[in-house]
Please model this.
Amino acid sequence: MVDRSLYEWFSDSVVKHGDAIALEVAGDRLTYRRLDDLAGAIAAEIISRHGSVPSRVGLYGMRSLAVYAGYLAAQRLGAAVVPMNPAFPRARNERIVSDARVEIVLSQDPELELLKPVLGLDDETLAELRSRPATRSWTVPKPSDVAYILFTSGSTGIPKGVPIRHGNVSAYLEHVIPRYELGPGSRVTQTFDLTFDLSVFDLFASWGSGATLVVPTRGELLAPARFVVKQRITHWFSVPSVVSMAQRLGRLPVGSMPELRWSLFCGEQLTVTQAAAWQAAAPGSVIENLYGPTELTLSCAQYRLPAKPSDWPFPVNGTVPIGHLYPGMEAMVVGEDGRTTTTGELCVRGAQRFAGYLDPADNAGRFMRSSGATAEVHEGVEPPGEDLWYRTGDLVRIEPAGFVHLGRTDHQVKVQGYRVELGEIEAALRDQPGVRDVIVVAIAEPAGATVLHAVYTGDADPDGTLHTALGARLPGHMIPRTVTRWTDLPLNSNGKIDRDAIKKELGSNIR
Model:
């Protein structure tokens, strides 16, 4: 494997495919060469404004030419990119700027004030920069240098910074680009916001192969089949929630995406029901379910569904397996007693594992050290050695199809002394006529008892029929006290179902 920086992946395509279209966004269609020229002009302007080459560049914006060219400009300088979402509270973005030690912020909004100097990349500025002669010099970072820093939600309520190195991403791209046959002529969706790590696949699996990145609007994401056909998309990549939303709106007709070649899903559990609906709409597409936390560089496991639905596996929780790890990655499943087992917490190490959190204090307890068939939690705060396993916090079971994702370890709860996997209850409800999506949450009552509650979307009537159906399938301690129909399940900023918001809403209503 040859380590390349993110910009080297892009620049290689500039050399090989300079006249191919690299980006289509909001009416702009830029070739690789023109996008490279614009990135070079922005990079020069960053140095002019900052007075030197910054080590970390903030990126404030969404789905615009300025954002994509700005991302490349920072990479061209060898700086780490720190994406920020304008929809996030100002205080959160200011904390990110501070914690990541951002030196300059690139923004679509020239009036933005965010603790550090801001280079506004509005339309007028971009037009002026696009007219400048191109500069060809750029910095080549080392594989151990940080490519980007993303902030994930912390259990304490304080976002945790996750630095990902160029070597981590290079190992990832070396695997996914050939696996999905990406190259000139491929047209790839960009469904993820840049604060979501899966966006790095969209950008650099495309730009590292000579493919075209096609950026939908928010409205177009609600009608994926129409977007795929209109834009001649060959590679679709999104969270599974998009499938459910399109179904509910009647925008996923059978056979509506006949030319789609690849369909990738990640970010949350993909149910067999969702996969079947998508397969019916795109009968010629290969469907893969991907898995991976930010700390393991986008995704690190994959399961390809067989072409015939009759050959699909059907785990007890009704989700598509996450399958097997990528090359260069190792897995260990650890039970509560610290021994390796077939059902327990998934721990991973290898080429894509990050080198520790931005704040070393966050490293404590997040890694495992193994010895034979046992493992123990590593409480050190220092950067973890390569021998340590990252604790994903995800509960898995090893089955013939590989790993099956059962949910978070904190989604396995005890009710009346029994251990309960919430995913098994959700699968039982999804099997009922008229039920589409389901979330089951456990809420501690004031007296201390843990009580289960379910919400679902679909046409099934909440008239007690569902309770009766569950009673015929599950033991009493696994039947939710309430089963409520909602029009929609709330989503967070990354498009995932927001389990915490559901729990909060139910908890306030119950009390």
